[in-house]
Amino acid sequence: MQPKEEIEQLRKLIRFHSDLYYNQDNPVLSDTQYDELYHRLQTLEKQYPQFITPDSPTQRVGGVASRAFRPVTHAVPMMSLDNSYSADDIREWHERTVKLLGRDSFEMVVEGKIDGVSCSLTYQDGKLIQAASRGDGKTGEDITANVLTIQNIPHQLPQAPGGVLEIRGEVYLDKKDLEMLNAEQESAGGNIFANTRNAAAGSLRQKDAALTAKRPLKFFAHSFGLGHITAESFSAFINWCRTWGFDVCPVRTQVTQIADVIRFYNEFADKRADLPFDVDGLVVKVNQFQDQQLLGATARSPRWAIAFKYPAPQATTTVKNIVFSVGRTGIITPVAELAPVPCAGVIISNATLHNFDEIQRLGVRVGDSVIIERAGEVIPKVIKVAEHRGTQEVLPPANCPSCGAPVYKEQDEVGYYCINPACPAQLQARLIHFASRDAMDIDGLGDVVVRELVKLNFLAEFADIYQLSFLHLLQLPNFKDKKAQNLLDAIEASKKRPLAKLLFALGIAFVGEKTAEVLADHFHTLDNLKNASLETLQHIPDVGEKVSQSIYDFFHDPKAVEQIEKLRLAGLNFTQPEREKSGNILEGKTLVFTGELKTMTRTQAEQLAKQHGGKAASSVSKKTAYVVAGEAAGSKLKKAQELGITVLTEEEFLQLIQKTN
Ligand SMILES: [Zn+2]
């Protein structure tokens, strides 16, 4: 093999295995094998520097020589739990335990099994000195730097016993944080995580702890390794954990009968969807430590605990068609259109097939009966073919399904792209993004309306939105005076959005919502940003090399500049308001938002609460100061009423915080 060829081959392999490791939580190569590939590439690039390209894995910002973390041996092995999936399984476990203990009745604690990543925290005289992943149970990885960035892990335990204390638990991500992270990843051109566990695992594996710090990871304590624990039972230990400053899983009950365990499992099956985090089952533990010692462990797992898991919600249906959707960057994603089928409480009629490699792996064809799954997943996915009925193989389209331009595939990537910048599908996706809630927030300019306006040639670029008139809109199906006027009003209102929203709306590569905020706060006006040198951009905290280059290129592209001038002429606001010093009417108060809000998203509402000194929580307790109830508020509203907590409507909430301005 020629050196150039080998270099390219190596890069391809490294990218593939990095993706498996960081994004899919499914590593195939050992760290040593991976490092061998990496070092071979480094050696070749040193020998043949003419073949080094900026996108080589060795050239990444913060590039690392090795993905391996320092190994940590667990003094007390981190065992895994046996799994059970049915009432029969759990009864069998109970019978075995009864025999071993020689008693019919014993205390059991049942707690939620968080779908996260196991982690061990070692404290020396109350100070966190080491964090390690589970690894194979005997040896894990030293992830101290990453774990130190997790907000709810105490670095000091002033009240804990001295000496060594090893607390174990689960690092996880809230469901809504996964949604936000994925939205950010998407606008930055990054990978989409399939579920909260993959996102947590990938975040912990970053060699650059600054990246981990940006992920909203959390921790629940659930057991211990070494340490002088004076508690006599698991439930007492959990209480100690709370006292020491750890969060613990709020899903917990104590029972003595196996029938109560099964009842709790059944009752909780539906409730778990409402929790802010993913729970894939329950853990049943014998409560008294004396009993636990008596029961001991097998080579693999303790006899005193068992996981009682819920099957991932699946459904079987037929693939009616496979269509190709074109995103705003031109990427083509195959989507299976399904015969509608209920799964985990919603009707599923589409499932993603991710990319063409995945189609090949599954061997799926139109007409096949397939099994789909929603296991805390954002989008349902096809997991396997149940029965082959189709005959025609699905191939990547040679031409863009929207504009007919030839489809292009980067050699090292799995994705296929439409490279026509004038492609209507891409244009549509860009316009929809521009008008979306988190961008310019033009109510009424959604998917369908944009498509119609593009079809009628009324929209070909962002600035055209501001040229729309009554006469244009009345030509749309179902548009009468009132609807047209409402849309025109919404378009007019969008001109006043702060600079950060506009920057996000423009769809600059790698500029997500957060980066847009940082840029707007830093530069205050669009012109300041536009005129910034590459060097200035690179020195802004949180803006990396790749991002600053992309921003710089954008503002030096004549087409983009022309677009910006048109938007200026249309009267759009190009400035960012100074961060207002808000009053602190909510200082120290905890709020819970529930139900559907009319004027803002949940995230926006929570941010508002924060700006006014408050804190948003996801569940109602005695400590809650206000519950803000939108439409169709359910159990949280009921609980607030039971506890006598002040309930506010959305309007009342807004009035309350406006009083302070
Ligand atoms: Zn196209």
In short:
The protein contains 24 helices and 22 strands. Helix 1 packs antiparallel against helix 2 (31-47). 31% of the residues are buried.
Residue-averaged pLDDT, rounded? 87
Radius of gyration from the alpha-carbon trace, in angstroms: 27 Å
Q: State the CATH architecture of the largest domain.
A: 2-Layer Sandwich
Number of beta-strand segments: 22
Low-confidence stretches: 61-65
Could you say how many structural domains there are in total? 5
Protein structure class: alpha+beta
Overall, the morphology is: globular
| End-to-end separation | 70 Å
Number of helices: 24
CATH topology annotation of the largest domain: D-amino Acid Aminotransferase, Chain A, domain 1
Instruction: Determine and state the CATH class of the largest domain.
Output: Alpha Beta
Percent in helix = 25-40%
Strand content: 15-25%
Question: Which compounds are bound in this model?
Answer: zinc ion
How would you characterize this protein structure?
The chain is of the alpha+beta class and 661 residues long. It folds into five domains: 3-68, Helix Hairpins; 83-309, D-amino Acid Aminotransferase, Chain A, domain 1 (2-Layer Sandwich), CATH 3.30.470.30; 314-417, Nucleic acid-binding proteins (OB fold (Dihydrolipoamide Acetyltransferase, E2P)), CATH 2.40.50.140; 438-569, 5' to 3' exonuclease, C-terminal subdomain (DNA polymerase, domain 1, Orthogonal Bundle); 590-658, 3-Layer(aba) Sandwich (Rossmann fold). 37% of the residues lie in helices and 20% in strands. Strands 12, 13, 14, 15, 16, 17 and 18 form a seven-stranded antiparallel sheet that branches. Helix 12 (424-435) packs across helix 13 and helix 16 crosses helix 17. The protein binds zinc ion (ZN).
